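Known limitations

Structure tokens in this collection are predictions and should be treated as such. Users comparing against experimental data should check residue numbering before alignment. To illustrate the layout, the record for Vitamin B12-dependent ribonucleotide reductase is reproduced below. The input appears on top and the generated tokens appear beneath it.
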Amino acid sequence: MAGDGITAGRQRSRANGSAAAAGGLRVERVWTTEGVHPYDEVEWERRDVVMTNWRDGSINFEQKGVEFPAFWSVNAANIVTTKYFRGAVGTPEREWSLKQLIDRVVSTYRDAGEKHGYFATKADAELFDHELTWMLLHQVFSFNSPVWFNVGTKSPQQVSACFILSVDDSMDSILDWYKEEGLIFKGGSGSGVNLSRIRSSKELLSSGGTASGPVSFMRGADASAGTIKSGGATRRAAKMVILDVDHPDIAEFVTTKAREENKIRALRDAGFDMDLGGADIVSVQYQNANNSVRVSDEFMRAYEEGGQFGLRGRLDGSVIEEVDAKKLFHDIAQAAWECADPGLQYDDTINDWHTNPETGRITASNPCSEYMSLDDSSCNLASLNLMKFLTADGGFEVQKFVKSVEFIITAMEISIAFADFPTEKIGVTTRAYRQLGIGYANIGALLMASGLPYDSEGGRGVAAAITSLMTGTAYRRSAEIAGVVGPYEGYARNAEAHKRVMRKHAAANDEIRSSNVVATAIVKEATKQWQNGIKIGEKNGWRNAQASVLAPTGTIGLMMDCDTTGIEPDLALVKFKKLVGGGSMQIVNQTVPRALRSLGYPEEQVEAIVEHISDHGNVVDAPGLKPEHYAVFDCAMGERAIAPMGHVRMMAAVQPFISGAISKTVNMPESATVEEIENIHYQGWKLGLKALAIYRDNCKVGQPLSVAKKPAAEVAPAAEASPAPVVEKVIEYRPVRKRLPKKRPSETVSFSVGGAEGYLTASSYPDDGLGEVFLKMSKQGSTLAGVMDAFSVAISIGLQYGVPLETFVGKFTNMRFEPAGMTDDPDVRMAASVMDYIFRRLALDFLPYETRADLGIFTAKERATQVQAEAAAEAQAASADLAGMAASAPVSAPVGAANSEAPAPEAEKPVPVSIGSSTELLEVVMGQAADAPLCFTCGTKMRRAGSCYVCEGCGSTSGCS
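Generated tokens:
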């Protein structure tokens, strides 16, 4: 079908005298060297990849002798090996070299391009092959994950990461939705759907009964998603559920996840394991989807005016109920304050930038909200690494960027010619409209390295200019391709609307404020690209209905060794770096010294500032650093976190130059109020965003709690011991029983578990260590009483021989059998069994707080006061640091000039053994918990990437890019 469409398009183009007469695209050399294959330009090395679970040390994956360029980091090589190499490990079919991976993908693109007539000559096809290979090899860009999973394999050639489905008001359609989502998750992607066509629970069925409503059908889809790991074992399913603000069930939809979050809190306080991935979290509903409300301009104007807003029936569109717009908007903010859901999508803004309105409205998005297009459609993504275009003197390689966008758009367009799709409906729509999603990563690092604050007019100007240049070039290339193989199938009926949107983009480009020479040069080229693209498009049409999005770039960002993902700023100034041969180091981000040199600091001051950041995790009071330069080093988290509106303003600066939208979450401090969230939602609409989601720190229960920052002496690793001398004699140590004295302190607790009553007597050594327990349940002489007596003796002897109490606690808590249920103990409200209760009670009575914190066992009071305790500890630690600096900080005077070629000081430090990711390292630096889930694969804390999370250890993501 795809081949026929392209052939027909080609014939039409030639008949119209378009660029097809040239016989295909000409390819210019940009990155490669004539006569030298890209693989021959780099040094290759063999490595062993061994991935372990950070928590228990078990090996998750092992492949020895894999081949990568020497300049690829350990992390990038590990992720590519574990995620993207195909074939069973240990078999000859298993890929073992990056060359094989790149060749598998690039050769497929080249062959399809030649087959379908994209290239003028075989020489052009070969040069395209080499240029694409060079760019992938040198981490200039990356395709989205499904390309690496599937292209060139025996699997279906699914290349798209983003899907939008549709659901109608019928049971057949709803069941089709469940099935289609499952197929998409299986292929390694995510999907979104708008449920607003389903009639509300306030409307009648044809049989006379009341409809279930969309929220009830969300339960089934949520349960299905929870059982499917996307891409086999690659990551959890990712999904988006949307409801229009005028749907009669909107109030129920808004509070759905907030109610479940309250349930999670109650169950956690009762002793259940409610962490993400915990044994009991599966009992909670609606946790596998992001929820968003589609708000209209009509609703937002009613909010501004404080008026009423009508909720409309799905069958005839009549108003069923009128609600207070201000109250509903406040309720949305309240729910987001409680659990971060729902987000907002601004319907009229989205459809005002829609190139295909004659075909249908845009009603939904993918899970991360960057792809917005027609129902039953898909989009394949690719992202540029912007740091590859930053020159040593702070300039931007504009022409290389333009040519790189040409290569990538051409490759992405070719992929639709051979791609497979999970459903026929999606295949038909995608082939007819050919939506693409070029984007970028590392804008945060580029701005910092250039000496520009992320939250500044200068930073926003550069970001807007680059985004405009990228999308303008992409559409210009799309128009050129249309001259070779014809415009997209749905272009004719949408031609005027498509041209109108192109003019809107070009007009927005003219409004960019360029405050420096670099931004001015980029805007100048962007203006040229838009003008030429519109001129060529007027003649040829465009090959693609959409061209660009800003995706999370989670796994592929790690593959490209990017410091920052998508449009995000830097997470923090210190990062976690894996080393060849094992181990890890804490280093200051390399963008920091580069930024300092860009700002004119001499090398001696650069070294002193980097050392300060290494010690303190921030730039406050760094020796010699001017306070007016602090903002350059502001990050998403830490001492100087970027204000929420700083994130919103950056999104607003680049949104007019994106075909789709932006995957990004606006982080807000825990102290943020509902009214502040409401204002952020309102400002997102006023500033022209298409979608907006917020996250308030610590609003979700499903995060592992961490204790406050420990003194440096506690977290620093012990000095390496000298090698032990070889001894011939083997000494065998045996445990010695330490009996309790005749007279010892004890206490007895009466308890009730699920209605079964008993007594627990615990005796201690005089130095306050548990040494004996007695359990009494049922009458003396009964079987249960005998078992309890025997169990008590076994535990007591174990304690007296030195078995730590925490070992018993770890083994017997969460053990499940009857009787179980409610207890009469305010600190342990629910117990999975009598054993579970007994050892939780013993832990509370005899274990120190630090040990219990590791086991997740807290008193009711501790749960309520933990956050305050952490804040107090952080303030105390900060005061101590400031006092120390005041007494001993050296004064660095400028000596000599800055040298941009000097090696970057890394200020490397061994990472404490309990840290497994940059997020966990940041927790130590900040002295408080970071809101991030644990990776389902390797157990480390993930870090945010757009509106999703990515694991630095293994590359797993919670999203769809």
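For this record: The radius of gyration is 30 Å. The first helix runs from residue 2 to 15. Please report discrepancies through the issue tracker.
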